[in-house]
Amino acid sequence: MSKVIALANQKGGTGKTTTTVNLGIGLAMRGKKVLLVDADAQGNLTDSLGFHEPDNLPVSLATVLTKSMLEEPYESDEGILRHAEGVDLMPGNIELSAIEVSLVNTMSRETVLRSYINTVKDRYDYVLIDCMPSLGMMTINALAAADSVIIPVQAHYLPAKGMTQLLQTIAK
Questions:
Q1: pLDDT at 172
Q2: Metal-binding: is it a keyword of this entry (predicted)?
Q3: SS in 3 state form for 3-16?
Q4: What is the CATH number of the domain that holds 122?
Q5: Most buried of 6, 49, 86, 126 (most Cβ within 10 A)?
Q6: pLDDT tens per residue, range 104-120
Q7: Residue 83: helix, strand or coil by DSSP?
Q8: How far apart are CA 38 and CA 130, in angstroms?
Q9: What b/e string do you get for 116-126 counting C-beta neighbours within 10 Å, with b at 16 or more?
Q10: In whole angstroms, how far apart are CA 98 and each of 34, 39, 66?
């Protein structure tokens, strides 16, 4: 049974991507099959893993989510990149910004990412979703797809206040 974990915080610079990379590679080093999902239009997770031009990749998370929304067929491993340190990556890029807008008018818009993850998660022990620093539709999708959430946060007043807001959103 696969565990799906979203790494989320609406504040940027809290360590979501760094935690995703290190946790993913650490799990892979322990023999676990891990898929990292870059659900951030900035593509920082993709870039961090050495794919330095995420906007030029032929297939990304945006590609498969678009096909899913349009009910077009796609291969379950379409676009997944293999990394030398033992993790697989579904890359993200700027095209996810357009997905944010498209999701607003999509039926079952909160579960589009979950539908995609359900097609691949049986091959993995862990699916880690690196979220964008917002509470937009992609982050809502990641939360709806996840079994649990890791919220990287600094021990300061404003980040803690933001974490409280995120916890309220997760509860909803």
A1: 79
A2: no
A3: EEEEECCCCCCCCH
A4: 3.40.50.300
A5: 6
A6: 887 788 999 999 999 99
A7: coil
A8: 5
A9: bbeebbeebbb
A10: 27, 12, 10
Domain count, the chain: 1
pLDDT band at 160 (very low <50, low <70, confident <90, very high): confident
Structural domain range at position 32 = 3-171
**pLDDT score, position 155:** 74
| Alpha-carbon torsion (165, 18, 92, 68), positive or negative | negative
d(CA 89, CA 137): 21
- Residue 108, judged by CB atoms within 10 A of its CB (0-12, 13-18, 19+), counts as exposed
What is the number of H-type helices and E-type strands within the chain? 7, 6
From 79, 74, 27, 32, select the one nearest 51 (Cα to Cα): 79
Judge contact between 7 and 130, C-beta under 8 A. yes
pLDDT in the model for residue 154: 77
